[in-house]
Structure prediction request, 223 residues.
Amino acid sequence: MIGKISGRLEYRAADHVLIDVGGVGYIVYVSERTMSALPGTGEAVSLYTDLLVREDLLQLFGFPSLIEKEWHRLLMSVQGIGAKAATAILGTLGPEGVGRAITLGDWAALKAAPGVGPKTAQRLVMELKDKAPGVMAMGGSLPDALEGPAPEVPEVIEPNKPAVKPVATPPAASQAEALSALSNLGYGPSEAAQAVAQAASDAPDAATPELIRAALKLLAPKG
Prediction:
């Protein structure tokens, strides 16, 4: 299994890139969102990857963060959602957007992705609503978007080249930490995830304390 690739970006196509790793070129399929965040041709790049194996086909799909890779796998567990459809959904909504849409039952948001019809979007919500909180909670423990100091390019790649340029996506740590806090207060995974998702939807840039306060207000008894 190829879980991560660090190398030099050779060229871009409509839905994939070629990354040179020590003289070996790897074709990696990526979403439009990821494509737009990649560095220029000839520059160093690093992506987490997932290998799709079929009888007559091997395809690598690339992600800027492990949380996005986990969402890709979960989306593909639904009948009718292949690797490219899952990539399109993530490219349209991003990992945080996918989590909010599924948790809040917003199948119309999922339908906005190319190739996803109303029935498929509704099936995504129905089948994944109980699994979504688990992936959302992983956001605080998984490396996000290869942020921080750029990893070194392996020695098999030509020396004295620029350091690998990370690809950035929005962090999921605040939502994960808010979920953990609500769970510690005794709220169930589903209701906590719904409240955090709604709070994050209302204030996308909110830090953990603000998310917790907003979620608690949503969970407070009405009347």
The first helix runs from residue 32 to 37.
